[in-house]
Structures are given as C-alpha cells and as structure tokens.
Amino acid sequence: MRPGVVAVVVGLMVIVGCGPAAPAPAPVASSAAQPAAGAAAGQATPAGDAAYRQQVIDAARSEGEVNVALQSAWTPEGIRALEDAVQREYGVPIKINFTPVQNYIQRVAELSSELAAGATPSFDVHQTSDANAVLMLDRDLLEPVNWAALLPTGTPPEIVKGDSRLAVVLTDHSGLMYDPTVIPEAEVPRSLKDLGNPKWRGKVMLMQYPSAYFPWVITLGREPMLQALRAAMQNGAVPDTYANEYTRFTAKEFPMVTTVGSYTVTAQKRGAAAAFAPLDVSAGGDHFVAVPRKAAHANAAKLVAAVLVGPEGQRIAEEYVGYSNRYYKGSADNRLEQAARAAGFPSLIWWDSPEARALTTSPEGQEIQEEVQQIFQGG
Fold this sequence. Notes:
The chain has 379 residues and is an alpha/beta fold. It is built from 14 helices and 13 strands. It has 2 domains: 36-171 and 286-335, Periplasmic binding protein-like II (D-Maltodextrin-Binding Protein, domain 2, 3-Layer(aba) Sandwich), CATH 3.40.190; 174-282 and 350-372, 3-Layer(aba) Sandwich (D-Maltodextrin-Binding Protein, domain 2), CATH 3.40.190.10. It has helices spanning 47-63, 76-90, 104-116, 130-138, 147-150, 214-220, 222-234, 242-250, 261-269, 298-309, 311-320, 332-342, 354-361, 363-376; strands at 26-27, 65-70, 95-100, 125-129, 160-161, 166-178, 204-207, 238-240, 256-260, 275-278, 282-290, 328-329, 347-349. Strands 2, 3, 4, 5, 6, 7, 8, 9, 10, 11 and 13 form an 11-stranded mixed β-sheet that branches. It has a two-stranded antiparallel ribbon with strand order 1-12. Mean pLDDT is 86; it is low at 1-44.
C-alpha cells in the first residue's frame, strides 16, 4: 500500500509544496542524534565497514539486477535516474526491475508464505509501512544490514530503524487530498468526523486499509473513530487503495480522498488541482525499504536501498515521484510537519508511539481492524 498501512493523520490545512524539483535536501540537525559511523556521516570508514562495503559491491556486480516492490508512482524515467545514481555511488551497473508495491498487507503475506515454504522471495527490496514493518520484524522476515558502511554521505543516521533491518525511504502525513477548484478552502473538512456531513454525500473516498486508522483511535478514541467511518460510509464514501484513489481523484470522479500527502505532491507535479487538508492531528508515519531473508539479489538490493534513502535518491524521488522525507530539512513532508505543529495541532509520530505499536500486534488492534473492514463492506 501506498501504498500501504499504516497511514497517519495531521490536523492543519496546508498545501503541500509543488513546482520545480527541490535541490538535494540537507539532513535535519539533531543535537540528540549521534553521527552514523562511516559513509553515512562522511567520516573515514572503519576497516571492517570498508571490507563489508567492498564485499557487497563485488557481489552486487555479479548479481547485476534487482527486483523491487516500490511506491506505485515511480516512473520509468525515475527508475533510470535511480540506476544511474547507484552506478555513480558504487561503480556498479544494476538493472532495476520495478513492480508497484500496491498493497503492503498483501506483500507481507506473500513474503511470509514464501519464506515459510523455503522459496526465494519474489522481491529483493520491499517497501512497507510502520504497522507492516512491525509484523515483518516480529516474524523475522528481514535481513539485518550494515547500513553505516553503505549509506551515501549526508544520509541522516536517524533513518536506520528496527535493529538495522529497516531504512526510512519516505515519511508521510495522512489527511485529505481535495480539489480546490471544487471545494472552497473555508469549507474543507478538518476532522474525520466531518466526512459524514450530508453536504459531502458521494464526494469522498476513504483509504481502505484498516490499520491506517490507528492514529484516529489514539486521537479520537475507538468508538468515535468507528462511528466517524460509519457516518462517512452511510454518506456514500467509497473505500479503495491509495493508487486507485489517486487515479479516480485526478480523473475528477471524487473531489476528496483520505490519503497521504505525498500523493498530493505527485498530483500537483503532474498538473492536477490538488491541495492537502490534514485531519484532527499532526501525525507522521515512516515508510521503509528492507531486504528480505534469502533474497535472490540481496547485495544489489542493499545498494539500491541505500541510494533510495540517501540524498541523491531522495532528490530523484522528489523530482520524479513526489514523495519526501521529514528527516531531510526542507523536504515537502518536513515543511508540512513544521507547519502543522506551528498551527498548534498535537503531534503523533507513529514509530515513536507506544500506543500505535501496541495496537499493531494486540488482540484489540485486530478487533479494530476487523470492525473497520466490516464497516467498509457495508456492515
């Protein structure tokens, strides 16, 4: 899923930046974070890291290709730019075979089944979201990587998560993408509860992923969140995937869709009338790239993933895809987060929220997801 679960929410009206591609962003300064060892911090790489880096490069050269499941908005031009960036960084030509990730939940289930059966995973690089990453870690589906030895100079060390099995490729805020030529700014909903207003009958699509609504559970409470979704569905809302929401929004079928801010940026870059109105709370979610165990092209995967999360990969993504990463100062998502906080909305960062992480694997969280699914099915 935008692809993916878990999406998160914000609560400020703000239009995500558009226009020409931003220059390569600078890392966010943090007095609390210590620089990563080796290439990620631009320091001399220790002998062990240097040996590891060269071993990965040599093996990747032999592999020659990599199968990736990434965000659906990647274009052929963007993939070629990414291949060029990998070759510049490591001196290795890697053919990137791109498949849209589409649905994070299905990809996790697919990978779990493949590894349980002793089969080679279909993809060497998986993109996934917060909630699904927790499940992948819990099931030990991912290979640990010495990211410090591989990450390009200027990569913020904070992007390494999950016992070095995850690297943050994009961050996003969830809320409402709307058409400002149809919905006046003064009338744009500010809360999930507003989507049940009869004036919006038949004008709204909802992201279909049940765990995407966990931040609203934390912010509004379980029953108020469920009631808000019931009201929206009774008001003619249609649930669908992020990718399909984007397609139908840009085709002018629906003027409002609950989604993530990066799709708004993509829509703007492609000439669509689109603006972003966060709902209820400023909450950020991380999306990761990871290398599964027993990957067919594990070394090429590590190099591609490292470039994706590094400054050049982020610049390419901003230009060709439209997503961004709040760990880089000046990125679209960083600007959105800062604007939301400045407006006084409470902040919720999913990965740092004990409540959100607990819901992912708890019986209560499973119950909530089942209830959301029933609501979307008309129950």
